């Protein structure tokens, strides 16, 4: 399997606005996911958020390090945990992603806040690192509430 990195530039909604839709799309494809954040506190916040959203449904998930990691369709991690054999990794808050992960998974999604200069610079660095390593990458931006592909590399 040779995956792709998708960069999602959040400009009109925060992470918690975009993430449920992206998770739903991946789950509809039958994929298991890892959601990787940069710190434990943020993972715990996301865990609480996902228990309450979407309001019209339920998103089964767990925090990495539990006894049932392998059974989780969505695993939240502040590290390199991949205990649920995911097809997709969604990284946010500048969490690291390797070229090997892009190669090994069907999809790696990197979500970043377009209103945060540090987040923009981190995402640009990740784009350079991954594309220079030969990974295929796509850049998507929010445009009037829709995702629009703005750039592609290595396809």
What is the CATH superfamily? DNA polymerase III subunit chi
Output the number of helix runs.
Answer: 4
Q: Write the element-wise H/E pattern from the N-terminal end onward.
A: EHEHEEEHEHEE
- N-end to C-end Cα span: 15 Å
What's this, in brief?
Helices cover 32% and strands 29% of the residues.
Describe this structure in words.
- This protein is α/β, with parallel strands linked by helices.
- The protein has a single domain (4-153), classed as DNA polymerase III subunit chi (Rossmann fold, 3-Layer(aba) Sandwich), CATH 3.40.50.
- Helix content is 32%, strand content 29%.
- It is built from four helices and eight strands, in the order βαβαβββαβαββ.
- It has helices at 15-28, 40-52, 99-104, 117-132, and strands at 4-10, 33-36, 62-63, 74-77, 88-92, 107-113, 136-143, 146-153.
- The chain has an eight-stranded mixed β-sheet, sandwiched between helices.
- β7 and β8 (146-153) form a beta hairpin.
- The radius of gyration is 15 Å and the shape is globular.
- The chain starts with a strand and ends with a strand.
- The relative contact order is 0.24.
- The mean pLDDT is 92.
Give the arrangement of secondary structure elements:
Elements: E1 4-10, H1 15-28, E2 33-36, H2 40-52, E3 62-63, E4 74-77, E5 88-92, H3 99-104, E6 107-113, H4 117-132, E7 136-143, E8 146-153
Parallel strand pairs: 1-6, 1-7, 2-4, 2-5, 3-4, 5-6
Antiparallel strand pairs: 7-8
């Amino acid at each position: 399997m040779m995956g792709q990195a998708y960069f999602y530039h959040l400009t009109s909604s925060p992470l918690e606005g975009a993430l449920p839709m992206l998770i739903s799309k991946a789950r509809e494809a039958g994929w298991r996911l890892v959601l990787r954040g940069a710190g434990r506190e943020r993972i715990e916040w996301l865990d609480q958020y996902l228990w309450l959203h979407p309001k019209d449904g339920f998103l089964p998930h767990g925090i990495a390090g539990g006894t049932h990691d392998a059974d989780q369709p969505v695993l939240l991690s502040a590290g390199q945990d991949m205990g649920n054999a995911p097809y997709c990794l969604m990284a946010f808050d500048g969490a690291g992603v390797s070229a090997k992960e892009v190669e090994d998974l069907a999809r790696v999604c990197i979500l970043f806040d377009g209103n945060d200069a540090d987040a923009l610079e981190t995402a640009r660095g990740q784009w350079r690192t991954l594309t220079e390593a030969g990974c295929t990458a796509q850049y998507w931006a929010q445009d009037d509430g829709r995702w629009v592909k703005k750039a592609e590399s290595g396809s």
